Every structure is written in C-alpha cells, then in structure tokens.
C-alpha cells in the first residue's frame, strides 16, 4: 500500500510547476474508497470461489456411484485397502514392522505388500523392486510368496466360495431380465458370470488338463452329486428344473448340467441358439482378459518350481480380482420381482447304504446324456419363441 501512495503522489506532481504555482491537493479519501471497493470486490470473488469449491466437495461426497474399470459397472467403495491390509498383517506376523537386536526398525508392512503387489501386477523381477521399495531380491520373493499364502488363507472362504442360494437367484435374475441366457458360463479351467466374478478355477500344468480331471475336481459338480448344492428353480417350455446348467464348448462331456453349442447348425432356430450360447460364453474370455490385465504375472512364465507356490499366486490373483468385482458391482443388492430361494429340507439319513444309493442316483442324473439333449432342445425352442415374440 505504501508503494501505491508513493506512485500516486509522484504521478500527481508536475516537475514543470514553479514555486509560485499552486500544487493540486491530493484527495486521500478517494484513494481509501477505491481501496475499499477493490478489497470488497476481491473478497466477494474469493467467497464465490470458496462457495463453488465447497459445493463441488459436497457433490463429490454425495456422489456414491462413478465409473469403474469395467464399462457400465458401479463402484460402491474404495476404502477397503487398509482394512484388508490389517487382516493380512494380523494373520501373518511377518508383515508386522518390528525392531531388530539394535532397535532399528525393519521393513514396514507397506514396503512388503507393495513389493508383492508390484511383482504380481507388473510381473517385475524380484531384484527390480530394490530401487523403488528398497528391498532385496530374496526378501521380495519371500514377500510375494507369504503375501499370496496369507491372502488365500484369509479371503479364500469368501471370494472362492461356491454359489449360494442368493448367488444363484441373482444369476437367474440377470439371465431373465437382462436378456442373457441363464447361468454362468463354464470352460475347463474356470467358471465365471457376466459380472466377471470367477466362481471356480482349476489349476494344472500345461498339457495335463482334460475334460475328466477338471470336471471331477470341480466342487460345483461334487456338491450337486452330494445333494448340498443350492437349487436353481426355473421353467423352460413348461417343465420345471431345479439344477443349474453351465454353457460349454462341444468338446466337453454331455452331462445334464452342461449345455453345449451346436457344430454347423442348420435352420434358423439352431443358428440363433448357437449364436446366443457362444455370445454368453464370451464372459469367461473377458474375465481372463481382465485378470491378465490386472495381474500380468498370470500371463507370464512360472516364477517358482514348487506347485503350491504357483497355486497360491493364481488363487491370490483371483481373490483380489473378485474383490475388485465386488467393489464395482453390488452383489448384495436386493433382487426385485424375485422370490427368495426356498430353504432346503434336509432329511438326516443314518443308513450308509441309503446315502450311497442317493449319491449314485444323483451322479447318474448328472451324467444323463438324454437329459443333456432334452435340456438343449428345450432351450432352443425357448430362445426361438422369445426371439419370435420380440420381433412381433
């Protein structure tokens, strides 16, 4: 402000004036009024900016949904990282920061988990984390192995579970009201749905997988044979069904729980069915694509000679993938216009012969080839009927 007065005073004086001429008086009150007006204008602008910022912050806090990594999906929350990290730290003391014998702090929890995640996400060599995380090669490899083991032990029960009754009801709801045919798709290695949630995965060495050892190892089909799988109630062509089915390629076994495509279909009905079946089976390809884009180690050569380490790496990547899917879609949302899945009436049977005979009956029903063709023909007629009605 002093510089302003000096500048104003010097500019108001004229060097050409003589001593006899009267100098023009300086109106200090006008200067103060101008300063007050300028100050008030600046304060108003600042207040408006602060109001706009506050309005934007309130709008951001109230905005619950925004776009996720999958187009069209909804993000529910993103504040789970600390809670999940605490669960891993509480499960394995290795991730707790401790002091050595001379009371110097060792590596922190963030350092160890960050090294493991960078190896999983970017398939970095173990010694490449030293520059950024300050961790040696052997320690980084140990962090990744123990991190994957802790994730599997803590979260596998929730994120690698078999479909529950509510899960089956939600999948049928998606199939009925989103113009998608029925249940999740299936291939030899994994079972996934439209939301890209991976329900089942089988890990084996390259070249050793076939339709027998993969399907036999699947807990989905073993649960059906044991009678403990949740029922999937739906009606096709006036016939009621209580067992879900999975879409598969034509190289797989012709079971009653598997619906295959048609090789070289003839006629509009079969061509339309093949097109719909194959389009729905793209979900599992999308799931693998998203999984590999998030965790590059899945698509890279093996990092360990031990099979259980490879299993932990793959299982941990799938669990974290399902965590992201849970954030991006509300799996617990209420299902409208749907009846809750009925509670199964379980009769306790003590006789082991009866239990074994019931198991054999269900097992034969799963492998019934006639039921396989009957279900596929019913689906062909059902889809064609819906397609004809939609054109009308």
Report on the structure:
Helices cover 54% and strands 5% of the residues. With 392 residues, it is mainly α. Among the domains are: 81-159; 165-299 and 337-391, no CATH class. The protein is extended. The protein starts with a helix and ends with a helix. The model is unreliable at 1-21, 173-188 and 335-341 (pLDDT under 50).
Strand proportion: 5-15%
Could you say which overall geometry the principal axes of the C-alpha atoms support?
A: extended
Give me the Rg, rounded: 33 Å
Question: Could you spell the SSE succession in H and E letters?
Answer: HHHHHHHEEEHHEEEEHHHHH
Lateral strand order in the biggest sheet: 1-2-3
Helix content: 40-55%
Number of helices: 14
Largest sheet: 3 strands, antiparallel
Q: Which parts are unreliable, with pLDDT below 50 for 5 consecutive residues or more?
A: 1-21, 173-188, 335-341
Mean pLDDT: 75
Quick one: how many beta strands? 7
Q: Which structural category fits the helices and strands?
A: mainly alpha
Provide keyphrases for this structure.
two-stranded antiparallel ribbon, 14 helices, 5% strand, three-stranded antiparallel β-sheet, 392 residues, mainly alpha, single chain
Task: Indicate the topology.
Blueprint: H1 2-12, H2 28-62, H3 81-91, H4 109-122, H5 130-133, H6 137-159, H7 165-177, E1 185-186, E2 190-192, E3 198-201, H8 211-217, H9 219-226, E4 234-236, E5 239-241, E6 246-248, E7 258-260, H10 268-280, H11 282-294, H12 307-328, H13 352-366, H14 369-391
Parallel strand pairs: 6-7
Antiparallel strand pairs: 1-2, 2-3, 4-5
């Amino acid at each position: 402000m002093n510089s302003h007065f000096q500048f104003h005073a010097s500019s108001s004086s004229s060097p050409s004036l003589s001593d006899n001429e009267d100098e023009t008086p300086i109106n200090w009150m006008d200067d103060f009024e101008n300063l007050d007006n300028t100050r008030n204008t600046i304060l108003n602008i600042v207040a408006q900016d602060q109001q706009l910022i506050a309005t934007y912050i309130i709008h951001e806090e109230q905005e619950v949904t925004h776009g996720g990594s999958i187009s069209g999906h909804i993000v529910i929350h993103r504040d789970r990282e600390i809670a999940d990290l605490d669960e891993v730290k509480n499960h394995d003391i290795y991730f707790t920061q401790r002091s050595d014998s001379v009371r110097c702090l060792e590596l922190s929890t963030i350092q160890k988990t960050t090294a493991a995640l960078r190896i999983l996400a970017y398939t970095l060599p173990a010694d490449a984390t030293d520059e950024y995380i300050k961790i040696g090669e052997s320690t980084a490899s140990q962090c990744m192995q123990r991190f994957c083991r802790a994730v599997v032990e803590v979260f596998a029960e929730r994120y690698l579970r078999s479909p529950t009754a509510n899960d089956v009801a939600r999948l049928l709801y998606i199939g009925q009201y989103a113009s998608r045919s029925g249940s999740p798709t299936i291939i030899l290695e994994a079972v996934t749905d439209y939301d890209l949630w991976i329900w089942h995965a089988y890990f084996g060495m390259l070249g050793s997988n076939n339709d027998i050892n993969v399907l036999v190892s699947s807990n989905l089909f073993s649960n059906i044979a044991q009678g403990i799988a949740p029922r999937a109630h739906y009606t096709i062509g006036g016939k009621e069904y209580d067992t879900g089915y999975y879409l598969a390629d034509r190289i797989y076994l012709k079971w009653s729980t598997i619906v295959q495509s048609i090789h070289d279909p003839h006629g509009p009905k079969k061509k339309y069915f093949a097109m719909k079946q194959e389009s729905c089976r793209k979900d599992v390809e999308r799931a693998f694509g998203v999984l590999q884009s998030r965790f590059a180690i899945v698509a890279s050569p093996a990092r360990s000679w031990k099979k259980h380490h490879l299993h932990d790496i793959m299982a941990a990547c799938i669990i974290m993938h399902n965590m992201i899917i849970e954030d991006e879609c509300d799996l617990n949302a209420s299902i409208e216009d749907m009846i809750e899945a009925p509670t199964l009436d379980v009769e306790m049977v003590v006789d082991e012969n009866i239990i074994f005979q019931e198991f054999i009956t269900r097992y034969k029903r799963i492998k019934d080839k006639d039921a396989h063709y009957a279900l596929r023909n019913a689906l062909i007629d059902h889809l064609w009927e819906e397609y004809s009605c939609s054109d009308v």
